[in-house]
């Protein structure tokens, strides 16, 4: 019998190589992440202004019916979600300033809590959109 083997695989090592060992600064926030956080903050601020106008208009100046109530609740959920996104992006930008090893665990817990709240408000806004759509479809019939 002839045993053949692929010679290109003969130079592999069985040793584990950690490519992250050259990273010394755990508090480094890249420039791309800072730029993305700034763009997200600008979009969040525009959305907060728009939802604030909707809240002011529907909450104070319009007669309440079922459609306007759903839209008002949708604007409240979107306003809260955008406010949490803004706070999360501020936390990302300030992470490099307050990077003390005592605060990293607290920072990760705060980011997790804000993330869960953002998901809650996003799902509730989707539920309000569904309710508005169903109501409008039933109004046609």
From TrEMBL:
Main location: membrane
Membrane topology: Multi-pass membrane protein
GO MF entries: G protein-coupled receptor activity
Membrane-spanning intervals of the chain: 35-58, 70-98, 110-132
Membrane is among the record's keywords: yes
Ubl conjugation among keywords: no
InterPro entries per UniProt: GPCR_Rhodpsn, GPCR_Rhodpsn_7TM, MRGPCRFAMILY
GO cellular component, one term: plasma membrane
Subcellular location: Cell membrane
Protein name: MRGX1 protein
